[in-house]
Design brief:
single chain, 164 residues, alpha/beta, five-stranded parallel sheet, 6 helices, 11% strand
């Protein structure tokens, strides 16, 4: 950060804390053991790059931690793994959208492996649920793997046609 801090726009920190159905640890354990570290990390980043947004990458069902992520100083959350428990995009936007930017959400585990129409509907649904008022960056919930048909990747990127 000493060398490049002035040039950064986003700093990403990864700390996966969720499974498909629930957090890996209890919120109490998170608050006692991990949140203090997260606070120190965000404070040290802000000291060297105060203008940069700080994004936390934490997969899975992490909804119970989101208020703590915000308190710890994170500005963005990635991915929004909508297939995981408690990660309904519309609810997340309403509850936390004033305090957190969301990046991700397009389900690569199921939806991106379906039909082109399924992909288009997923993109439309997420833009509708999370796009109002800004604070949402449309992206997949994880990297596209070789099991995602090329046609579906193209449909994902053809947002103009998808949301028209």
């Amino acid at each position: 950060l000493d060398a490049v801090g002035e040039f950064l726009q986003i700093v990403e920190y990864a700390d996966d804390l969720g499974t498909q159905s629930a957090p890996l640890i209890s919120p109490k354990t998170y608050r006692a053991l991990i949140k203090p570290c997260h606070i120190r990390i965000t404070q040290s980043i802000r000291a060297k790059a105060p203008h940069a947004k700080i994004m936390l990458h934490s997969c899975g069902s992490v909804r119970k931690f989101i208020p703590d992520f915000i308190e710890a100083g994170f500005d963005m959350l990635n991915p929004i793994q909508t297939a995981a428990g408690g990660m309904d995009p519309a609810e997340l936007k309403v509850e936390f959208g004033d305090d957190l930017v969301f990046l991700g959400g397009v389900d690569v585990q199921q939806k991106m492996r379906g039909s082109v129409e399924t992909v288009q509907e997923e993109v439309r649904s997420l833009i509708q649920a999370m796009g109002e008022g800004g604070g949402y960056i449309l992206a997949p919930s994880h990297n596209f793997g070789d099991d995602v048909p090329v046609e579906n990747i193209l449909a994902f990127f053809d947002v103009d046609r998808t949301v028209a």
